[in-house]
Structure formats: structure tokens, C-alpha cells
Amino acid sequence: MSRYENYLFNQDTSLDVDNKRRYYTALIDPTIERSTDDVYVVTSIGERLDLLASRYYQDANLWWIIAAANPSLRRDSVYLEAGIQVRVPRDYQDALVKFQDVNNSR
Predict the structure, then answer these.
(1) What are phi and psi of 73, to 5 degrees?
(2) Backbone phi, psi, residue 26, to 5°
(3) Is 16 helix (H, G, I), strand (E, B) or coil?
(4) How far apart are CA 88 and CA 2, in angstroms?
(5) If 0-12 CB within 10 Å is exposed, 13-18 middle and 19+ buried, where does residue 65 land?
(6) Residue 42 host element (H or E)
(7) How is residue 27 annotated by DSSP?
(8) CA contacts within 13 A on the Cβ side of 98
(9) What is the CB neighbour count within 10 angstroms for residue 80?
(10) From the first residue on, what is the mean pLDDT of each consecutive set of 10 residues in the chain (106 residues)?
């Protein structure tokens, strides 16, 4: 399930007529609160966010939930450094609802 699937809100766009480009407003990831149900994983060599999402959510497209729950992670890659602790929120459905809410309210 992609975070863009069933996207119920209209993303603001602007069109630059001169260079024929369309610009979109950035989407905002929700703040994912800590929970006693969260799982903590120490990464190994070759670990990636999408692999963790596939393992814990059975959906690799939900990698962004793990990224949002760990703001100190690098933002330029889905690859994780070996030996770091990563929080995996158990309640990913709540993150999907929060994503819709935070982006619909803008």
C-alpha cells in the first residue's frame, strides 16, 4: 500500500507557463509518536528501509513510515548503516491516517 494510494486530497500545484513546468507543494510526513509496542532493530550490513518495511508490514512501500519514525536517519538513501538502532512502529495504520490528516489540513 503506497502512501499515495487513494490520495484523497488535492496537492497544490502551480504552472510556470514560460518554461512549461508544473511545481507541486511538498508532502509532509507525520510525526510518529513512540509506543510501547514499537520494535527496535539493530541493523546489519545491507539492511534497507524497504526490507524492514517488507519484514514488519509485509509491504515494502511503507518504508517511509520507518524513516519518519527515525528522524536522525540519513534522508538521501534507503540503505542503513550497520549497527544502528532503528525504531519500527507497530501501528502503521495510524501513520497512514496521520499522513492523510496532516496533508489534507494544509
Answers:
(1) -70, 155
(2) -70, 145
(3) strand
(4) 17
(5) buried
(6) strand 39-42
(7) P
(8) 15
(9) 23
(10) 50 72 79 94 96 96 93 91 96 89 79
pTM given for the model = 0.76
pLDDT at 9: 44
- Counting beta carbons within 10 angstroms of the beta carbon of residue 8, is it exposed (0 to 12), middle (13 to 18) or buried (19 or more)? exposed
Return all residues near 63 (Cβ < 8 A) that are at least 6 apart: 48, 49, 50, 52, 53, 78
Q: What is the phi/psi pair of residue 75, to 5°?
A: -100, 0
pLDDT at residue 100 in the model? 84
Cell numbers that stand for 101 in this block: 490528516
pLDDT attached to residue 26: 78
The amino acid occupying position 26 is: A
pLDDT on residue 12: 64
Cell of 97: 491516517
Q: Which of 44, 12, 41, 52 is nearest to 28 (CA)?
A: 12
Alpha carbon distance 52, 27 (integer Å): 23
The x, y and z cell numbers of residue 76, run together, are: 538521501
